[in-house]
Amino acid sequence: MSREYPQMRLRMSPELREKIEEESKVNGRSMNAEIVHRLEESFKKDEEVDTSIIISADEAKRRSETHLKNLDVALRKFAFSKIYDAIKLGKDEAIMALPYIVPISMVSDYLSNPSKESAIGLLISELAEMGYKVNFGDQGIKGDSDFYLHISFSD
Asked: Which of 117, 126, 140 is nearest to 78 (CA)?
C-alpha cells in the first residue's frame, strides 16, 4: 500500500475494530491493508453481476433447475460458512436462514416429510455425524422460525 495515497479518518465501533485487527493478523496484513482489501473485494462482487444480460423466463427456469440439482453442495457451503462466521465471533452456535439458499417449498416439504435423501436431510445428517446439534427454528428469531436451522457446537 502506497503511503502517497490520500489518507482519511474512519469511525467504527470497538467491536468492528477488534474484528478487523484479528482478521488482519490472521491474514498477515496491516489493519489498513485489511480494510482496503475487504473494500476492494466488496466492489468485485458488485462487478460480477452483469445486469446487461437479459434472459428469457424459460432460460431463467432452466438455470434455476440446474442449480437445484447442485443444491446439496451449495447448502453445505452455506452452513459451514455460517459455522465459521460464528466461530470467528466467539459464538458456539450458528443460525442459518434457509430461504436464502433453498426454496421455501422445499423446507415445507422437508418439515412435513423429513427425508435423509433431500438436500436438507443430507446436511442435517452430515452435521449430526460430525457432532453438531441441529434443530429447526430458534426462540430468539421472530416470524417463521421453522425456516431457520439452529446449529450448535457447545457441550
From this structure: 126
Indicate if 32 and 82 belong to the same structural domain.
no
Residue 93 falls inside a structural domain: yes
Range of the domain at 28: 14-48
Looking at this protein, which amino acid is placed at residue 67? Answer: H
Q: Which residues of 49-75 are buried (b: 16+ CB within 10 A; e: fewer)?
A: eeeeeeeeeeeeeeeeeeeeeebbeeb
The CA-CA-CA angle for residues 125, 153, 86, to 5°, reads 110
Return the C-alpha cell found at 120. 436438507
pLDDT in tens, 30-57: 888 889 888 888 777 656 656 667 788 8
Pull the grid cell for residue 99. Answer: 430461504
Terminus-to-terminus CA distance in the chain, angstroms? 44
